[in-house]
Amino acid sequence: MKVLLAGANGYIGTRLIPVLLEKGHDVVCLVRDKRRFHEHSDFSGKVTLITGDLLKESNIEAFPEDLDAAYYLVHSMAQTHDFAALEALSAHNFVKALDKTRCKQTIFLSGITNDQHLSRHLESRRHVEDVLKEGKAALTVLRAAIIIGSGSASFEIIRDLTEKLPVMTVPRWVNTKSQPIGIRDVLGYLEGVMLNEKSYNRAFDIGGPDILSFRQMMLTYAEVRKLKRYIITIPFLSPKISSYWLYFVTSTSFTLAQSLVNSMKNETIMHDHGIDEVVPRKCLTYKECLELAFVKIEQNSIVSSWKDAFNQGYLNPGFMDQIKVPQNGTQEYKVKMPFERPANEVFTNVLSIGGNRGWYYWDWIWNIRGFLDKIFGGVGSRRGRTSNINISPGDVIDFWRVLLADRENKRLLLYAEMKLPGEAWLEFKIIERHGKQSLSQVATFRPNGLWGRLYWYAMWPFHLFIFNGMAREIVNYRE
User: Fold this and answer.
1) Of 76, 228, 370, 421, which is most buried, counting CB atoms within 10 Å of its CB?
2) pLDDT given at position 303
3) Closest Cα to residue 210, out of 131, 291, 269?
4) Which Pfam families match (predicted)?
């Protein structure tokens, strides 16, 4: 069967690809930039790639006419603009392109929407369902609550809160009930309904066997991790204050925090169990989902993370065009550090930068910079990295985005997603000349007007110590 996957670079899409390939399906992935997919995915040689930005109809490459089914796994919740309008536009353009094919079924992963007064996010999800129904293909909707798995937004937020705060003063939404489901079960349902005629033109709630409040989920996480945690509910915290609280404590962006907090006022519990007749399945318990996620983390085998999903609020869709660092109108700080050990060992240190490893020198300064970034509405440094050992273009490293990770030529290029009066790049490269080796480390800044220039010169004394110390520690670091 030929299957189209829209949202192939996202958290769910990245994990669905191998499931579909294992079943022998011919998978067509709709992506905005083929270069990122080739670098990011282990399956790039096994799928067909077509390009298109669903927010721009003219940019969408024609879908293959002989499609049998299509997955729509796109959302705009982390956008800084009106995500509801963007989601509707994206779905409309998708339907218009899909109607030119012979596709029999569209499968959409949505959210449980059983409450009467829905949040803007859940209302938008329901509206997208209505838009997709307008297409010629039969629509199957799977409505999930919280998805638990290594790298999922829900899991990472629960993890951030529980690991970092022995005592939590929390808003009242922690008592809202939900029915979490494991990522493994979500993938099983997504694959199980495909071209299953019993699922045509129907919507199904999907969830695990446990109905838990957010409080219970955090306390269960603490129990599994053998942590002692105390939760104190403060009922008068407003949604906006709650959003700021979530934003500063966890690695989520403020826009996403707002959407999540507003959604958390709605109970997301299954009212309909019709999915059991269409795709019989025994789902994992919440505790089993946590234990599986910990195994993946310990093995450094997290397949995908919500943090690596492209966020237009921080970076232009053509970010890989910035692999060549600009030279005109820029300021640079260069460090050249010679070394005499094997070059592969030093470059391994380069590729391990950020996250749990840290920045090798004066980590406390980087943490302060991340905290200030949070205060001014930036991403901060809490995002870490998906894997401690693997890195690909498009991945997140704290408040940087990976543009290039070239192992053959030993070059790593990062682009800053922090709030800045300009643009910034950080490049590492191993240079071998005349039998001698050195680490080249170049920080490039393109200032935006007078404030940008003042910022650069104000930071120069810190660069003098930080970048020299970092380069020295990178070439000397041994595990």
Assistant:
1) 76
2) 46
3) 269
4) DUF2867, NAD_binding_10
What is the sign of the dihedral through the CA atoms of 243, 249, 253 and 259? Answer: negative
Would you call 329 helix, strand, or coil by DSSP?
coil
DSSP 390-416: ---TT-EETTEEEEEEETTTTEEEEEE
- Count CA within 13 A, CB hemisphere, residue 58: 0
Residue with tokens 């030119």: 100
Write out the H or E segment, with its range, that includes residue 6.
strand 2-6
Beta bridge pairs of residue 70: 4, 106
9 vs 310: CA distance, rounded Å: 8
Report in angstroms the alpha-carbon separations of 275 from 187, 203, 204, 271, 279. Answer: 14, 9, 6, 11, 6
Tokens coding 270: 């299954």
Whether residue 168 contacts residue 232, with contact meaning beta carbons closer than 8 Å, is answered with: yes
* DSSP one-letter code for 333: E
Are the CB atoms for 145 and 268 separated by under 8 Å?
yes
The H or E element containing residue 300 is none
> Which ranges of the chain have pLDDT less than 50?
299-303, 305-307, 310-322
Packing angle, helices 214-224 and 153-164, rounded to 10? 70
What one-character DSSP code corresponds to residue 64? P
Tell me the pairing of strands 167-170 and 26-31.
unpaired
- Distance, CA of 418 to CA of 424 (rounded, Å): 9
Task: Give me 357's structure tokens.
Answer: 């490893």
* Alpha carbon distance 135, 156 (integer Å): 35
CA–CA distance, 351 with 335 (Å, rounded to integer): 18
In whole angstroms, give the CA distance from residue 12 to residue 356. Answer: 25
CA dist., res. 75 & res. 126, Å (int): 12
Amino acid at 361: Y
List, in order, residues 6 or more apart from 464 with CB less than 8 Å away.
none
Helix, strand, or coil (residue 11): helix
pLDDT of residue 209: 95
CA distance 11 to 309: 7
- pLDDT at position 255 is 67
